[in-house]
Amino acid sequence: MGASAQDIDALLPQTQCTRCGFEGCRPYAEALAAGTTALNRCPPGGAHTITALAALLDRPALPLDPACGTETAGMVAVIDAARCIGCARCLPPCPVDAIVGAQRQMHTVLEDLCTGCELCIAPCPVDCISLQARPASARESVVPTPTDNAARYAAHVTRQAAREAERLALLAERKRRATARVSLLKNERAP
Ligand code: SF4
Ligand code: SF4
Ligand code: SF4
């Protein structure tokens, strides 16, 4: 029997960066378990992850597929405070909730949590987020591990789902009130 998606997923960096061409680490793991994709598509994991996957899957190791990017461990996002307009568009895409700030306030990246996944860069309307090498002082102290990343991503998904449920409940309540008002008006105008 081949390796399970769960075992494969445990070897992936859990940045959810999508550079492998899948919607996150778990979907890539599932495709690897099904034998429908190559094992050399994870730039954050690089050669280390390819070697681990090759051993688990009993397949030959391959060089990282350049179409997916280059090995990018050790990078963090940095926000240019002078240009940030506080729009908060970078918050929802961050899989590990590493950006802090409120509407109309300058935002900042918590470098101890940032995986360098780049998912916050494209949504920024003023292009004030860039990737930089993790500061030397932080390199050895608090570099997020795959386990940390997975836990923060799970919390992120739970928070997003709760926010969405709250939004839908609010919409449903507004609709209920509007429908009740319309019924009341109709009843008042009825002869
Ligand atoms: S960390 Fe690797 S496996 Fe996970 S989404 Fe990024 S490229 Fe894909
Ligand atoms: S701050 Fe940006 S680069 Fe860092 S983890 Fe969040 S989305 Fe990824
Ligand atoms: S998306 Fe860019 S401008 Fe908007 S809050 Fe984030 S860093 Fe600031």
Q: How much beta, percentage-wise?
A: 5-15%
Biggest β-sheet description: 2 strands, antiparallel
**Mean residue pLDDT:** 93
- Which strands sit side by side, in order, in the main sheet? 1-4
The proportion of residues forming helix, as a percent range, comes to 25-40%
Radius of gyration: 22 Å
Which regions have little confidence, pLDDT < 50, spanning 5+ residues? none
CATH class of the domain at 5-68: Mainly Alpha
Number of strands: 4
Order of helices and strands: HHHEEEEHH
Shape from CA axes?
flat
CATH architecture of the domain at 5-68: Orthogonal Bundle
Q: Which hetero ligands occur in this complex?
A: iron/sulfur cluster
Number of helices: 5
CATH overall fold name of the domain at 5-68: 3-methyladenine DNA Glycosylase II, Chain A, domain 3
Q: Label the structural class.
A: mainly alpha
**Separation, N- and C-terminal Cα atoms:** 76 Å
Walk me through what this model shows.
The structure is a single chain. This protein has 191 residues and is mostly helical. It has a domain at 5-68: 3-methyladenine DNA Glycosylase II, Chain A, domain 3 (Orthogonal Bundle), CATH 1.10.15. Helix content is 39%, strand content 7%. The chain has helices spanning 5-9, 25-34, 46-57, 136-139, 146-189, and strands at residues 75-79, 99-100, 108-109, 129-133. The strands form two sheets. The chain has a two-stranded antiparallel sheet. The chain has a two-stranded antiparallel sheet with strand order 2-3. The N and C termini lie far apart (76 Å).
